[in-house]
Specification:
With about 375 residues, the protein is an alpha+beta fold. Helix content is about 35%, strand content about 25%. Strands 3-7-8-15-12-11-9-10 form an 8-stranded mixed β-sheet, sandwiched between helices. Its EC number is 6.1.1.3.
């Protein structure tokens, strides 16, 4: 389907081709819409940040072997492997009040992590990826409410694509930071959120991160494989490391709790999962090419391009196959290689009548008016169906 390519000049770093970018942009547009719907503010943090930041976050001491580092003007820098320290700097950029919380920052952040070359695998295991990240800064009394909200967002993603999922709750490990009270409140908040939504879950005792408990969402694809994509992690450590504060209602300084949230995991891996799950037959709104226009002969080529221009003007992704090939060959290629939702087969009869012959994935063909067909596809795009 020519979605992406790899090169030895950049192992583990996908080169997105035109078809892949069309798909990726459609998925990204959906992601942007969902962030706005759930009340997130989008941000973007720098790709390269200084060693001192990574020392503050703890990554320099505990994650450096997975980071790409360099020296500029005799100062050490690293390409970010994750986005959370940048979110902390944004939070700390000015004084915060309890009224400002929750502060919900979303970032489609480009990250780089070193993976051994032998472990790299298509879009599923890469060195460069875009994390569908969010970082929430909340008060302790907001845990259940905000975890519930984040869970609704993640489960909405999976419902959109028809993925079943299972949920795991991981609790306090032996080596952890934070008080007993913090952990008890956090773990109970996660339980309350899941139970309020009626979500069944399995408890992994002692398998939480040292900085806080977490919820992991494992989706199941069409082959029955399990993929850990979504996560909601509570974090006491980074707010402590960065000395984050807010002024509470009684005028005292308090430390916020940080929530890390991801739904797709990364755009790259999620697109890989979607591609295999749909076997390339993406829903209309995701399809790189939504309509392929197939003129039967040279005489119908001008009309084919006229039709394509009207489709493109309506925001529909369209291609014209005006090669000097038999129409049967064009149809087979559009169906088996491009896997387009719709083909428009245009011969002299359609030219004379000023209409179109539409063939869908069921191989059913019907005659339609162009304006009606455009309205149908525009609606399918807007409603993200098909």
């Amino acid at each position: 389907m020519e979605l992406f390519m790899m090169s030895d000049f950049g192992p583990g770093s996908p080169f997105w081709l035109p078809n892949g970018m069309a798909l990726r942009n459609a998925l990204t547009d959906y992601w942007h819409e969902m962030q706005a719907r759930f009340g997130y503010q989008e941000v973007q943090t720098p790709l390269i940040l200084s060693r001192s930041l990574w020392e503050t976050s703890g990554h320099w001491d505990h994650y450096k072997e997975n980071m790409y580092t360099t020296t500029v003007d005799e100062e050490d820098f690293a390409i970010k492997p994750m986005n959370c320290p940048g979110a902390c700097l944004i939070y700390k950029s000015k004084p915060r009040s309890y009224r400002d919380l929750p502060m919900k920052l979303a970032e489609a952040g480009l990250d780089h992590r070193y993976e051994m070359k032998g472990a790299l695998h298509g879009l599923f295991r890469v060195r460069e990826f875009t994390q569908d990240d969010a970082h929430l800064f909340i008060r302790p009394d907001q845990i259940t409410e905000q975890v519930t909200d984040a869970s609704h967002l993640i489960t909405a993603y999976y419902a959109q694509f028809g993925f079943p999922y299972r949920v795991e709750l991981s609790t306090r490990p032996e080596d952890s930071m934070g008080s007993d009270e913090d952990w008890e409140r956090a773990e109970q908040g996660l339980r309350d959120a899941l139970e309020s939504m009626g979500i069944e879950y399995v408890v992994n005792e002692g398998d939480g991160a040292f900085y806080g408990p977490k919820i992991d969402f494992h989706l199941t694809d069409c082959l029955g494989r399990s993929w850990q994509c979504g996560t909601i992690q509570l974090d006491f450590q980074l707010p402590h490391n960065f000395q984050l504060e807010y002024i509470d209602s009684d005028g005292t300084k308090k430390q916020p709790i940080m929530i890390h949230r991801a739904g797709f995991g990364s755009f790259e891996r999620f697109i890989g999962i979607l591609t295999e799950n749909y076997e390339g037959k993406f829903p209309v709104w995701l399809s790189p090419c939504q309509v392929k226009v197939l003129p039967v002969s040279e005489k119908s080529r001008p009309y084919a391009h006229e039709v394509a221009e009207k489709l493109a003007a309506a925001g529909i992704r369209v291609k014209v196959d005006d090669r000097d090939e038999k129409i049967g060959y064009k149809i087979r290629e559009a169906r088996s290689l491009d896997r387009v939702p719709y083909m428009l087969i245009l011969g002299e009869q359609e030219v004379e009548a000023g209409n179109i012959s539409v063939r869908d994935r069921s191989n059913e063909t019907h005659v339609a008016e162009l304006d009606e067909f455009i309205a149908q596809v525009v609606k399918e795009n807007a409603e993200r169906v098909g």
